[in-house]
Write a structure and sequence with these properties.
Helices cover 16% and strands 40% of the residues. By secondary structure, it is of the alpha+beta class. It folds into three domains: 109 residues, OB fold (Dihydrolipoamide Acetyltransferase, E2P) (Beta Barrel); 97 residues, Beta Barrel (OB fold (Dihydrolipoamide Acetyltransferase, E2P)); 145 residues, Beta Barrel (OB fold (Dihydrolipoamide Acetyltransferase, E2P)). A five-stranded mixed barrel has the order 1-2-3-6-5. A five-stranded mixed barrel has the order 7-8-9-12-11. The chain is globular and about 75 Å long. The relative contact order is 0.12.
Length: 366
């Protein structure tokens, strides 16, 4: 999300100061790690990785803006002493030949506190007004989703608002902010979609302010081997009985269900017994906020985070990921362990995915 914010600031700054100036300069974007007011320097760890020393020219401008601003019209003038470690900055100026330093004429600052507040507000809004589902039909004007919740799978018709932001996940990326500008026409049946907007009173339709789509694959598997050094694991796909390579990175969401929660979710999703009675109510540990049985995605987010070192060969997992360069490779977006009660068919030792879905974990957190 922060990278998108800074792209907007670069664009606004280019308009404000003129394209001729920006044609002769470069931009450095990253997080401040060190401030040296005496020498008018800040050290920035760039989004690409390397650190860059930014030295301000005597007539340089310091400006602070809020996340979400689309111009520098409301930016406030600050001094280098107002910058703190952890703030994100955009520095414009002339880079050295080795790209290790920049002589800057402008530095735009977003404080870490403002960014955290903005992120928290957006996440809260996604939790409140967001849904995740699988596309069952798509047209030039709307898409139909199957959305899984406490009451099972329900259909939802999503229509973008006139000013809706529509994006699509980048291939092999699990980062929400890496999603690229897209159109409704790119969405197809079988895609997974995250949408945020207002629903009609009956809950059957949504006017979406934001839609993010992608093509993903979900499997249930048992672990064959784990390479913690490479963050890679080999698994056996329970559906195809073939090996699959699962890769993880720092953005992969790996969690393990406590036994009580797994048993409760298994009971809740068990087919009804003869006579129409379901297998029984889930235990309180599997319920949502206030004991009302909240959204499935929110419940899964309460499961403890784990690493590959916490897992072992033979464990059962459910993985939602992007398909890699080969069909037998996945980059994990969400991986859930502790799922043996969910996958095991009642009265047998056989495990299968069935109609279970991790769609609620699509794409990490917005």
């Amino acid at each position: 999300m922060t990278s998108n914010i800074h792209r907007r600031v670069v664009y606004a700054a280019a308009i404000l100061f003129g394209s001729a100036l920006f044609a002769q300069t470069t931009s450095t974007v990253g997080v401040v790690t060190k401030i040296e007011p005496g020498s008018q320097q800040v050290v920035v760890k760039t989004d690409q990785g390397p650190e860059v020393t930014v030295t301000m020219q005597p007539n340089a401008r310091y400006a602070r803006t809020k996340p979400g601003e689309t111009s520098l019209a409301n930016a406030s003038t600050i001094a280098i002493t107002d910058i703190a470690a952890g703030d994100r900055v955009l520095a414009r100026g002339k880079a050295s030949d080795d790209q290790k330093s920049v002589l800057a004429t402008l530095i735009v600052v977003m404080s870490k506190g403002d960014i955290a507040q903005k992120q928290a507000a957006e996440k809260a809004d996604w939790d409140k007004r967001g849904v995740v589902g699988m596309v069952t039909a798509a047209s030039p004007t709307e898409i139909a989703l199957n959305v899984r919740g406490p009451g099972g799978v329900k259909p939802l018709i999503v229509t973008p608002a006139s000013n809706a932001v529509i994006r699509r996940y980048a291939p092999e990326s699990v980062k929400f902010e890496d999603a690229k500008p897209s159109t409704l026409a790119e969405i197809k049946t079988g895609d997974q979609v995250r949408a945020r907007g207002d629903k009609t009173p009956d809950g059957g339709k949504m006017t979406a302010d934001e839609i993010v789509s992608g093509s993903f694959k979900e499997i249930a598997a048992t672990i064959i081997s784990i390479d913690t050094a490479q963050n890679v694991m080999k698994v056996n796909d329970l559906a195809t009985k073939k090996p699959v390579t699962i890769r993880l990175n720092g953005d992969s969401n790996v969690r393990k269900l406590p036994l009580q929660m797994a048993q409760g979710l298994a009971t809740q999703n068990r087919p009804p017994e003869p006579g129409g009675r379901a297998g029984g109510p889930p235990p309180e540990g599997a319920r949502g906020p206030g004991g009302r049985g909240g959204d499935l995605a929110q419940r899964l987010e309460r499961a403890p985070k784990v690493t590959l070192a916490d897992l072992k060969n033979g464990d059962a997992i459910i993985v939602l990921g992007t398909v890699g360069t080969a069909p037998d490779q996945l980059m994990a977006i969400t991986m859930l362990a502790g799922v043996e009660p969910i996958l095991t068919k009642p009265g047998t030792r056989e495990m299968q995915l069935g109609d279970w879905s991790l769609g609620g974990g699509l794409g990490g957190e917005p």
